[in-house]
Amino acid sequence: MHIFPDASAVVRATAPDRPVILNRPHAARRAARFFLEKFPGRTLYAVKANPSADLLEVLWDAGVTHYDVASIAEVRLVRATLPEAVLCFMHPVKTPSAIREAYHQHGCKVFSLDTQDELDKIVEATGGPDDLTLCVRLRVSSEYSELSLAAKFGVELADAPALLQAARQAADSLGVCFHVGSQAMTPHAYVQALEKVRAAIVDASVLVDVVDVGGGFPSIYPGMEPPPLEDFFAIIDRTYESLPISYSAELWCEPGRALCAEYNSLIVRVEKRRGRELYINDGAYGALFDAAHVGWRFPVKLLRDEADGAVEPFSFYGPTCDDLDHMEGPFGLPADTGAGDYIEVGMLGAYGAAMRTGFNGFGECEVHEAADEPMASQYRGDRRDPRVSDNVVRLR
Ligand SMILES: *Cc1c(COP(=O)(O)O)cnc(C)c1O
After folding, report:
1. Residue-level pLDDT at 154
2. Best substitution site from 149, 213, 260 to test ligand 1's pocket, by max atoms within 8 Å of Cβ?
3. How many Å apart are CA 283 and CA 292, to the nearest integer?
4. Is the shortest distance between the CB of 254 and ligand 1 below 6 Å?
């Protein structure tokens, strides 16, 4: 893959007709090193956030050995890409055939569950061996997160003790896991969830070997500047250390977004302008799913030599023939942005590149690598100030 200095260089060299995904391996490597060095336990990568094989290899080379997978396709993908990776099947509703294949063919021994039925299914499909790690998923609040994961999965606290006791019987290693929701904006989210873990363990009176605080670690987006990740790690460590668990217990986390948000940006072309609306060549059915469906704002840059200074708010339409293919933003761009211009949309490595569909014939894109910094970073020791002057990149 050709390595360009930055997005402007891609536009100058190729004037791309299709959207371009830009990979930044150095940014993903830095994020992985940060978690491996600073999180006070084990880091699993949640593959669904971005399952591209090139990213999996970057994370593996950086030292990430454990992967949170949620479907048999993700199990096969990680096994095929990283033969020695440790697989953890953390979706609490699996098919018997997926469990069977994961355990018997791919060596996956870690499973999550939130009901007695799922526990029975896992025991039957694996044959009840003595090497299972079973993680009971607790239902916790998503009130501190931008995207809720509170409704769908997790056993209620009142029902947790019985399930923990039953899982203890079948497990070599017993875990408790949860997910506070994606893009948690305060470390307190984890404290509140860990207090539920404490209550469940005390009520159940079982020995717990793994406490898995899940994903939810935030990245930086316009209007969403979370506290430093070090604050999250410190509070999780302190609360974890006070839990009534065995001395040899392990602390795990499953970041998706935080490990890959900075890995990708996207170059789009403006095909038409109508007032403050820009019709671009990617959208709701491409890498901009979250921008359309949950109104997520991503940072943008106009890739052009000269621009009329003042930055104004724009919204985007994607390329399909569907009114839903609309991204409200607002996205701040120079007032004279129009047809033929290229725009770089940043921070799309998590739940961006992974969401692309072929709807309406618009799924194709190009992939290149860029050597410059992502538009924002949790990991470079500064915080980008989204000033007006940063919104135009000179093409030289
Ligand atoms: C989606 C998911 C994650 C990753 O969440 P992020 O918010 O991207 O960090 C981790 N664990 C489980 C079980 C998930 O479903």
Report:
1. 95
2. 149
3. 7
4. yes
Q: What single string gives the DSSP state of each residue in 98-166?
A: HHHHHHHHH---EEEESSHHHHHHHHHHHTS-S--EEEEEBP---TTEEE--TTTS-B-GGGHHHHHHH
d(CA 182, CA 184): 6
Question: 352 CB under 6 A from ligand 1?
Answer: no
Say whether domain 3-22+262-370 belongs to CATH 2.40.37.10: yes
Single-letter residue type at 219: S
Phi, psi of 89 (to 5 degrees): -90, 95
Q: Are 46 and 383 in contact (CB under 8 A)?
A: no
- The predicted structure's pLDDT at residue 396: 40
Q: How far apart are CA 41 and CA 37, in angstroms?
A: 9
pLDDT at 382: 58
Q: What is the pLDDT of residues 50-95, one digit of tens each?
A: 999 999 999 999 999 999 999 999 999 999 999 999 999 999 999 9
Bridge partners of 302, per DSSP, are 343, 392
The predicted model scores a pTM of 0.94
pLDDT in tens, 116-171: 999 999 999 999 999 999 999 999 988 888 888 878 899 999 999 999 999 999 99
| 260 Cβ contact partners less than 8 Å away, ≥ 6 residues apart | 28, 31, 49, 50, 55, 349, 350
Residue with the nearest Cα to atom 15 of ligand 1? 91
3-state secondary structure of 236: helix
CATH code for the structural domain at 26-260: 3.20.20.10
Q: Is 49 in the pocket of ligand 1 (CB under 6 A)?
A: yes
Q: Residues of the chain whose pLDDT is less than 70?
A: 381-396
Cα 68 to averaged position of ligand 1 atoms, centre (Å): 8
Question: How many whole angstroms separate alpha carbon 75 and alpha carbon 56?
Answer: 13
Provide CATH 2.40.37.10 ranges for the chain.
3-22+262-370
What is the pLDDT at residue 307?
Answer: 75
Domain with CATH 3.20.20.10 in the chain: 26-260
Q: What is the distance between the alpha carbons of residues 97 and 88, in angstroms, rounded to a whole number?
A: 16
